[in-house]
Each structure stands twice: as structure tokens, then as C-alpha cells.
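ok trying this again, last paste got cut off
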Amino acid sequence: MAPPNESKPTPKVAATPAPKLAANAAKGGPASSSAPCLFSLQDGELSVGGGNKAALLTGVPGNVTLTPFAEAFDPAASDAPRELAERAAANARRGAFLGFTLLAPASRAPYRVGRLAGPRRFLSVFRFKTWWSTAWAGRRGRDLQMETQWVLLEVPELAGAGAGYVLVLPLVQGGFRSAIFPGDDNGVVICAESGSEAVTGTDFRRIAYVHAGDASLPRC
């Protein structure tokens, strides 16, 4: 059965800029954890895991960036409650910011960040009307819906025979909101938009957040 989507066209994907930037953001920020990040971006592949890595995205363009949460978060400078900041720092290796950069400023920037490796089961929530959202499940990039607000990927490789998961969460960065859209050939598109032609940008390196969890984590 087709989802109750409004008739919204898939946004045209921005062209890939010529220069290839480093996969990870330049280091120099305060580290929250000495353990290496579970996420890595190498040779056009976004993967998660330690020794036994699982591919999440393939065919990742050169200007897509991955910034480990530990490099972006300083517990001492955070205005969050101390206990919450310490918990975030202790689990910093499980998270990272996923984003991209553009050559020319834009107020709306739909960008293909790669092809969803799989098939891999996922659960998501997408906005099908202005004030309404609903759940949706699938296995491939083409199963994603317009205006997806978050995606929970099943990654059993993270916990052996147990269940492992990766959350992909579009964020608000500065004056830009974001959402996930389906792309051609099982592609994943992250669209950043300000809603005003007067507000433009080129740096969207923290426009989405990815976080890894497994069945061994305590439930809230």
C-alpha cells in the first residue's frame, strides 16, 4: 500500500563539488573520550563497528564529512546538567555528526550522502502532512519517504547474535532545518533548508547525527 504522502517531488540533488575534502573534520577540539569513534568514513564508505565493521552507506561523495562527537563536545564548556554531560562524554565514541559542504551558498541544499547498503531493515518516522507524522519501515534506500524525521537502522553486526541499532537523526544547524529524502538507486538525501532566500550557507557539517547502540545497553 502506498504511504499517505502529499504529492511532493523528490528534491533535485546538488552536484558534487570537484575538490575532495577530508573525510573527518580537522582535529583540534577538546576530546570527550579517548576511545576511538565507532563510526568511520573511508574510501567512500560510511561504516560502524570496531573490528567487524558494518557498511551503512556506500558511494559517499568526497565532500561529505564525519565529525566524531568526542571532537565536537566539551563537557567542561557544556551548559547541560553535570550528570547529563558526563553521561554524554562517557558514550561519546558511539556518536558522530554527518554532514556536507557546498561550493556555492544556498538556502535549500538537498544533497545525496550515499547509497544505503543492504538490504538492511529500518524503522522511520516521516511527515506526510504539515502537522502529521507516521511510522514507516523498509529495507532499502528507495523505501525511505519524503520528509523523514529520523531513521533507526538494524545493525546486528554490532552485537553479534543480538540486536544492534544505528539512529540517523537530522538536526537544526544555525538557521537551517533538515530532513531525509529518498534518492535514485537506493540513495539517501539529506536536505537542509532555511525557508528564506536571504539565509544561505555552505557548511552543513553538523546537519545530522548518527548514534550506535546495542542490546547490552540498559533500557530507560
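PB: full thing came through this time. Confidence is low (pLDDT under 50) at residues 15-32.
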